[in-house]
Amino acid sequence: MPLHLSESEIVDRAALLPAFPSVVNDILQTLDDDNATLGALIHLVERDPVITARVLSIANAAAMAGRTQRDVRDMQVAVSLIGLSKVRETVLGVSLANFSSESRMGRHFWEHSVAVGVAAQELARLGRISTDYALVCGLLHDIGQLWMARCYPLEFQMVRLSLSLEPTLDILEAERKHFGIDHCAIGRLLATAWRLPTSVVAAIQHHHDAHPPADKLVAATHVGEVLANALDLSRQDEARVVNLSESACDLLGIDWNDDLNYLFGKIEARARYLARIFS
């Protein structure tokens, strides 16, 4: 018999998870604020010593690669070396990596999340939309599974067992069988409760849809999930190539007749690199 979970119970039980990092919303708000300054971003970085250390480490690596003989300790110098985009990417990734780690999810869960985030980013470039939003959508697309594993570990393991015994079983069907709801719907509730932008909520909710809404961010997350599984970037035994939405590909301008090996190689290389950097 499946569980009978109300929406309020799902949101209330999110208290069992670590506190969602507020810096994620802060970063996304700076993207939508035309008056946001470099100083505001630096302030966000310097609030967290772990993130500060990671940004300075990347900046020092860049300085060494550029044969600059200096020990970078100033955040403004660090930003000038690696750029605003890389700083935002690092802040978002490290914050959500810590969140995932504190939630006690396995390494494969985070590696898959990073892979989808990177794939969504590269697809966002094709679709000419925000790569920062795309990264967040990819990193959080399976947040509903994290909730399942933390709040109902026995039922979550039963879903995993069902998928291993029935390779053709759809993951959403397996989840509904045991939970009465799937991780996409749970993810929507959590993202809404955390006051994430509506576009991010939609991407989390619809990333498995065969016919997702005509939204480029949703499309990038959906296709990113398919590519991450097809390329087996997290090397999971249960990685599955879900149905690929033709309309999502068209929306992003993807033509599978083109030579996309460069795109696939870039996604794979960046996913491996960022999984190390963020962790």
Automatic annotation (TrEMBL):
Domain HDOD: 17-210
SMART domains found in the cross-reference section: HDc (SM00471)
Family matches, as InterPro entries: HD/PDEase_dom, HDIG_dom, HDOD, RNase_Y/CdgJ
Pfam family, one: HDOD
TM regions (residue ranges): none
SUPFAM superfamilies according to UniProt: HD-domain/PDEase-like
Name of the featured protein: HDOD domain-containing protein
Native source species: Azonexus hydrophilus
